[in-house]
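Fig. S4 source data, part A: sequence.
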Amino acid sequence: MAQPGRIGSIDITVDFANDTLTGKATGFANPSASTTTTGELTLRGSNIDSLGMIVGGLSGTLTETSANGTKQLTIRNQVSGEFTGATADAIRLSGVGTASDANGNGVVEYSVILAD
């Protein structure tokens, strides 16, 4: 399965009172014009400390459709990161996790999200 080239939309809500964040990534663009990638990745974060450090997870299922057929990839990642920018108006998260196809074949995947 090809990797999406970019994410079209990332929506994140931060709840400082409860030290959590939630969000989703949608609108994936595939590097190949003849291939589409659809689905949603959910972001859940906790343990936002006084320095703005975040620990959380990124998970979901993406579906890739091409001339070769349709494939699904289930993604489960642990992520960590921090608020960035002069007024903490952006979030940068990265992490390593697993991605598996419909047959349960797993691979290691690296994810990076930059949202502002």
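Fig. S4 source data, part B ends here. Strands lie at 6-15, 20-29, 36-46, 53-66, 69-84, 90-101, 106-115.
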